[in-house]
Hints:
The structure holds two protein chains of two kinds. Helix content of chain A is 73%, strand content 0%. The termini of chain A are far apart. Chain A has eight helices and no strands. Chain B has a domain at 42-105. The radius of gyration of chain B is 19 Å and the shape is elongated. Chains A and B meet through helix 2, helix 3, helix 5 and helix 6 of A and helix 1, helix 2 and helix 7 of B.
Amino acid sequence: xxxxxxxxxxxxxxxxxxxxxxxxxxxxxxxxxxxxxxxxxxxxxxxxxxxxxxxxxxxxxxxxxxxxxxxxxxxxxxxxxxxxxxxxxxxxxxxxxxxxxxxxxxxxxxxxxxxxxxxxxxxxxxxxxxxxxxxxxxxxxxxxxxxxxxxxxxxxxxxxxxxxxxxxxxxxxxxxxxxxxxxxxxxxxxxxx
Amino acid sequence: xxxxxxxxxxxxxxxxxxxxxxxxxxxxxxxxxxxxxxxxxxxxxxxxxxxxxxxxxxxxxxxxxxxxxxxxxxxxxxxxxxxxxxxxxxxxxxxxxxxxxxxxx
Lengths: 193, 105
């Protein structure tokens, strides 16, 4: 317990040292920032944008540039890694917003708002971790706008209202899009059995 | 399956463990360029005094008497940067070179 606390304190001090050096425009601090955190930021972005791997690299680079330019706002209240990941989250959501704003969303149809598809009976014999892995895989194989809408809704925990506000769509239109994405998800799930 | 399982999948999605060395190299070059846009880079002799390792070219720059010259970025004209930004795990072995470290050497 004490060892873990000491290690946390040490990494906190390292974070502040690194940021201080970076604010002096020290190129070696830039190298250390990349070396310590690029893998984590890249993995985070990759999970949320797969399979568009070309976008993953661009967005990861944007995260670091935004972080570098905003280093003076890093207070050290949270670890540097968390701070970088929160920037990554904003960048990802911004990408979702732009992508969904550009796609056609259904304007009519008989879909229920969100629940639409009953998913409770899917592969009841799988344990939760196996199921979650399969969910992630199936989502990555969906048409891209469906993958994005499900990730945004469930992984970033955004309500249909928040997504509607961000994309300039109506809440109803987003709910229909989520319902269609869930229906397609179920179809793909069945096919992948 | 509940919405909860859909949510949990965020942590289970498989992603590569490492970013490519090309990406790391490009990010690093971008950060140094951004730092230069904001003002002169910290001199290499100051970095060295802080215990940072320099590559052979940086050592040469650090030995220059002018602070202005020391604040320049020799990587801009270095073949190691060009290689590292384009070739995965490029064969760069200069000790102290950040690009060599990104390439795992």
